[in-house]
Amino acid sequence: MSCEICGFKQAVHECKICGRRVCYDDYNTEKGICSVCESALCQICGKYLSISTCISCGRQGCEECLVEISQVEYMCLDCLKKKKV
Question: Is the C-alpha dihedral spanning 82, 68, 53, 65 positive or negative?
Answer without folding.
Answer: positive
